[in-house]
Amino acid sequence: GIDMASQHGYPALLQQKLGKGYWVKNFGVSGRTMLNKGDYSYMNEMAWRDAVAFQPDIVILKLGTNDSKPQNWKHGAEFKQDLVQMITTFCPELKTLPKNKKKRAKALAEVKTKIILCTPIPAFKQSWDINETIIANEIIPIQQEVASEFGLQVIDLHTLFANDEALLFPDGIHPNAKGMDYISDAVLDLLLNE
Prior knowledge:
Shape: globular
Largest sheet: 3 strands, parallel
Radius of gyration: 16 Å
Strand content: 5-15%
Low-confidence stretches: none
Structural class: mainly alpha
Helix content: 40-55%
Strand order of the largest sheet: 1-2-3
């Protein structure tokens, strides 16, 4: 819904804010799911293969909203394993983390690819059968659990947008230009203040 998304979407804004020391690439595809059995699984897209081939140093994953639709969430028991599959494809060393806390912390500190999870934005309306209850009570807790398990950082867009429906288009789901700016600022803040 953003005019000239290649210039005004949050990845483009993030590139502008980070400057020449970073190369921000947008491999996002609208309407896709984390779930491999979702109606439009992201991991079936050419963009997924391109993202992996790019071998990024930092990966920002913002998926989960479309997984909350009934036709997708009927496979919700597989959300965690599909999320783990995605992050370990970007960062294979996460597959073999030691169980010992000290060794695990050391291994996490040496991980090459940094993965950042973004929680879904609140669904202020049930547009396209997107379900806020599933987002808040099922998807986000799984994301938090995986983040804890693998030492990932989380950008809590759900809380950031919780009291500000004005950051979204009238559909109550998609961020408008101001919302895109909020997302880019949240990512920027995490990257520059870690």
